[in-house]
Amino acid sequence: IGFAVVAGTYCFTYFKVMLIDLTGHNKAIEETLLLGGATLGLAAFTTTAYLIATVLPLFLGALVAFALLAALIVPWAWKKRAGLLLSWQSLSLDRTAVIVFVAAAALLSIIAPKLLISRPDGLSTGIINAYGDIAWHAANITLFAEGQTTPPENPIFAGSRLTYPFLTNFLSALLLKSGASLSASVNLVSLLMAPILFTLLYCFVRELTQNKRAAAVTTLLFLCGGVAVGWIDVRKDWQGSGVSLVEFLTHLPDHNYSGSGTDERGFHFTNPLITLLLPQRSFLFALPLACTILLLLLPGQMPRPMRYVAAGIAAGLLPLFHAHTALALLPAIVSFFLIEMKTTASPKQRETSQNWLLFTLPALIIGIPEIVYYVRGGSETGSFMRFAPRWMAGERNFLWYWFMNTGLLIPTAIAGLFLKIDKKVKALAVSGLIIFVVANLYLFAPWAWDNSKLLVYFFLFILPLVSATALQALKHPRVGFGGRVAISIIIGLHMGAAALDIWKLSLPTAAEWNEWDKAGIEFAKHVKQKTQVGERVVTSPNHNSPIVLAGRPRYLGFAAHVWSHGGDPWEREAAIKDFFEGRIETLPDLQPQYVLVGPQERSSYPNLVLRPHWQVVVQHDDYTLYRL
């Protein structure tokens, strides 16, 4: 916690001085500087700490990274202290932004702790979308905290390179190493970064549209976005429950009204908060960084060089936090560049080009090594980037499929292109529509639903235009009171399904799903004491083996996770079955040092064969670790 707060504060000071210098006070808003600075500061700190931790122990590496950032930033801030203080007094505070932050923080204080819940009987999650993902993230966190290799090893596919964006989990590993519990190290990052995201989104749209109402509507639509008509089953579920409406609303069904990646009805365009931000933790940094970059590159601001440098640094940091975001930002950044070049007078176009070069250079210098890292990791299955039109629509009518998922958002955005709305807003929406088209033609991951990692930016980019169009319609003289009520209801209906799911998640009666029982947690502690860092364990390929908590790499974890990240786990999965049932003595690719026999292994392999030469290393309750 100390690392996060102090590093963010340092970079906030740097970011504040820099923006005051370049914007001439007219665009620098307190909350934008604070939140953008904290985001960039934490991202820079986490990246620097990781690089140093490749040669030094984790905790010492974090201390050195902290000292380096302090040495770089504090002297400059001290030199600027007089101007900084005077400039702060002249800045305005947007009360709506404060309300957004406080409301988001209050909501996340209820929801974020449900990501990983610590109970006397074990660890569980209250977010069904995180049931499989949280174990994957925990495996990364514990491996980093125990002393991960460089380049990092895949914790559930031993011997292979980790190609999943890992820096958000690395920050949690720093918290874990600093003394936080595993649940706290997971939940605190969500509790910190999600409110920053929603407030930064509000600030960005406010500057983009010059309209606070449009910014507020956009933020609400993004928070409660998801399957547009997912609420259609509420009445049927209530009637089928046989309870009062109040009882039903306080004990909602476990399934998500805002859809899921495997929904048979075709409700696949899920809510960003409960299916991306919380379970897929990379978005906790990716989305705030994206908003910060777009805010810095927004055409129409004073063209001071350092603004572009800061945006370039943020863009360069992106790939190891979230590679899909770096790809999704390309059309938006190109559109902003074209607008700025077109609106800049000829004598100053060279200066504008030079400023954009100042963005491009740090983005490439920092980002290219990260991209090379992913490329060298490769995809064993060769299943990334393939032609697959219609995304997940299948045999459904394509237009009806997207109406179920997005309602009137796309038609409204297209209509907005023909209204008198700022061209920056339209350009961003066109960038979103380009992402939509590309994501409906090509898959960028083995699992089709993972295209949601791109489609969330289609959603984000069209919402400002959708909000501006809706507000224009509300103000139109021909739209009477009834029309305004109808438009407001339509906007509300687009948020209905996800609002129900968020409400359900915030209830004390919300369901929980057990990840690790008390015996498994105690067993993992003994395994850490009796084994060495980096020693590998063969287990049944379940997602939530207690070996995850021990910080030891597994020969194979959940095969679907390995496949969805580009690995080819099927040979190992078949070999594990033969190994446990006594048909083979050695495993392909590499030989683990240990084998776990616990409830999951006995359940998966009823014909399990124990060898007499296996040596008992740890035995606790129903779990036994053998040395091979």
Write a concise keyword list for the protein shown above.
single chain; 628 residues; mainly alpha; 4-stranded mixed β-sheet; 3-stranded antiparallel β-sheet; 27 helices
User: How many individual β-strands?
Assistant: 9
Q: What would the average pLDDT be, to the nearest integer?
A: 88
The value of Rg in angstroms is: 25 Å
The gross shape turns out to be globular
- Compute the number of helices: 27
Structural class: mainly alpha
Write a compact overview of the structure shown:
With 628 residues, the protein is mainly alpha-helical.
Task: Characterise the protein shown here.
This protein has 628 residues and is mostly helical. The protein is built from 27 helices and 9 strands. A 4-stranded mixed β-sheet has the order 6-7-9-8. It has a 3-stranded antiparallel β-sheet with strand order 1-2-5. A two-stranded antiparallel ribbon has the order 3-4. It is globular. The model is unreliable at 17-28 (pLDDT under 50).
Chain-wise SSE layout:
Elements (H helix, E strand, L loop, with lengths): L1 H22 L6 H24 L4 H22 L1 H10 L4 H17 L5 E3 L2 E4 L7 H15 L19 H11 L4 H28 L2 H12 L10 H8 L3 H5 L22 H6 L5 H15 L7 H17 L1 H21 L5 H29 L8 E2 L10 H9 L2 H8 L6 H17 L2 E2 L8 H24 L5 H14 L1 H11 L6 E5 H13 L6 E2 L8 H4 L8 H6 L5 H11 L13 E4 L1 H6 L10 E6 L2 E5 L1
Parallel strand pairs: 6-7
Antiparallel strand pairs: 1-2, 2-5, 3-4, 7-9, 8-9
Helix pairs in contact: 1-2, 1-3, 1-14, 2-3, 2-7, 2-8, 2-13, 2-14, 5-8, 6-7, 7-8, 8-9, 8-13, 9-20, 13-14, 13-15, 14-15, 14-16, 15-16, 15-19, 15-20, 18-20, 19-20
